[in-house]
Amino acid sequence: MSGVLRSEWTKLRTTSGTAWLLLGLVVATIGIGWLATAVTTCTHSDCFLDPTQLSLTGVQLGQIVVAVLAVMLFGNEYSTGLIRLTLAATPRRWTVLAAKALVLTGPVLLAAGVAVAGSVVAGRQYQSVPFRLTPVLGTVIYLALIALFSLGLAAIVRSAAVAIGIVLGLCYAYPLLAAATGDPAWVRRLLQIGPTTAGQNIMSTVDPETLAHAPWNGLGVLALWTAGTLLTAAVLLHRRDA
Amino acid sequence: MTDKMIEVNGLRKRFGGHLALDGMTFGVHSGRITGFVGPNGAGKSTTMRVILGLDRAESGTALVGGVPYRSLKRPLTHVGSLLDAGALQPSRTARDHLLWLAHSQGLGRNRVEEVLEQAGLSAVARRRAGGFSLGMRQRLGIAAALLGDPWALLLDEPFNGMDPEGIVWMRGFLRSLAGQGRAVLVSSHLMGELQGTADHVVIVGRGRVIADSSVAGLLARASSGLVSLRTSSPEAAAVLTGAGASVREAEDGTLTVTGLTAEQIVSALSARGIPFAEVSAHRATLEQAYMDLTRDAVEFRAAEVSR
After folding, report:
1. Within-domain flag for B221
2. Domain that holds residue A213
3. Which of A5, A85, A158 should be substituted to probe chain B, the one whose Cβ sees the most B Cβ atoms within 10 Å?
4. pLDDT digits (tens, 9 = 90+) for B234-269
5. Across the interface, do B55 and A242 touch by the CB < 8 Å criterion?
6. What was the ipTM of the complex prediction?
7. Is there a single domain that holds both residue B259 and residue B207?
8. How far is CA A196 from CA A138, A166, A181, in A?
9. Does B105 touch chain A if contact means CB atoms closer than 8 Å?
């Protein structure tokens, strides 16, 4: 396993896009969060505003950068045919998936940590964003889970483009579709089961009653999706012809 | 090197409705180059993928050194392979490409430098593999196959895209690998590429083995009783047929005759005063031997379809 881990680390390290995408995650997340806090004002007395969530607006874009990085790990191998060499070198295929997951998680946690902490700090320039552990830590974990979910998805569909399409759909189209059902009970139910919509509850610091999930529960739903996806990926990787 | 071998036994595999492997059975012995030849779609690549544990066969076994490939701990130290020279991340350098592969087998940088040297790639080790010509990619693929110093090598169409100089290099290289006692399986859809390279050939068509023979044996069989000659006379063919031979006529006036010895042909034509030249007992090329064998397979196939 240690050899496979080292091997996957070398691959990630020598992929030209890796460093840029991690930098992109930090810049996009902080930049958009800062912009959102700068342009949003609350003048009405009954104004509903969650400064923490507002400062983390950039995560909406940052999660796609993370997903792109993650799907590349498998997507590139399938598009070039490199996967056959990888699996010929490591016939215990689940170790390849595990190693990719591990080497992906480290850098993503690090970059997401900088991005999320930076967003909160930047947001304090215009809003009274409190320093709270739950949304900061939780959002970092959220981004890591999105990365792992995307990784598993890419291994299942064996295409970076298809995988990123699904992630984009879940991030942007799914909440709209859920809202379009009209019926509040259904909207709530759909927001509760969607991996991204459930997971994003972790960014909220206001009244949990208004949320689809309590913050950590929502993240738990995403974690379940991620575990299920990785497990499915492992089984398919083992059973399918390379 | 010990006398390990690759054994393929009764492999059967279907892709959709298409039978890709239909009882494929042969062995690859150490110390010699085994050519694996057949038209495109004959099942060569599929067989190699099954041997490497990449594809699963519906039935039959493929063993390397007596065990299934997928049970090997550091497989590249047993079997090196080159399936597709284009399977590279274009932005990665040649050295880095070999480095991740080395790490996966618990091997280090030294080994990478050694195989780069062996494949003649040291000078371009820092260049991105995406910029390599197909010939250079083949060399990189060979370097990757050699990383683990394996006792067996499986190479799928390694001559593809190589310039003449590269082909000469590859032939010599493969010969030296077999000379070190390794078992080398080289696939090709062009029999001519293997002439002077392979010691043994396994000829396949439609997912099964058509011939499994030493090259010398194959040539001897294909050469037997063939005589060619040149003549400008239109009667020559009729005369020889009358004398009991069967004759193939080419447009440039070359006749290929079977059923008569060169001596008998000369006397038959001389008796009628027919001019001729360049009578020679024919030595078949591997290409012709292959064509003869696969022609039979094609005819058999046509008969099967029309039935």
Report:
1. no
2. 2-239
3. A85
4. 888 888 888 888 888 887 778 888 777 778 888 888
5. yes
6. 0.90
7. no
8. 13, 11, 18
9. yes
Chain B residue numbers with beta carbons less than 8 Å from the beta carbon of A6 are 103-104
CATH number, position B130: 3.40.50.300
Q: What is the amino acid identity at position B197? A: T
Q: What is the secondary structure of A179-206 as a DSSP string?
A: HHT--HHHHHHHHHHSHHHHHGGGG--S
Nearest residue on chain A to B52, alpha-carbon basis: A88
Q: Cβ–Cβ of A3/B104 closer than 8 Å?
A: yes
**CB contact (8 A) between residue A85 and residue B101:** yes
Report whether A163 contacts A71 (CB < 8 A): yes
Instruction: Give the pLDDT mean for B105-133.
Output: 95
Q: Which residue has the tokens 């044996």?
A: B217
A61-81 confidence digits (pLDDT tens): 999 999 999 999 999 999 999
Query: Pseudo-torsion of CA A42, A46, A51, A55, nearest 10°?
Result: -60
Examine the domain organization and report whether B89 and B126 are in the same domain: yes
d(CA B27, CA B24): 10
What is the domain extent for residue B91?
5-214
Cβ separation A7–B70 shorter than 8 A = no
> Is residue B300, in this structure, part of any structural domain at all?
no
Q: Are A127 and A69 in contact (CB under 8 A)?
A: no
Question: Are residues B32 and B70 located together in one domain of the fold?
Answer: yes
B230 shares a domain with B146: no
B90·A88 Cβ contact <8 A: no
Number of domains in chain A: 1
Which among B74, B89, B93 is the nearest to A80, CB-wise? B89
**Per the domain annotation, does B16 fall within a domain?**
yes
Query: What pLDDT band is residue A151 in, cutting at 50, 70 and 90?
Result: very high
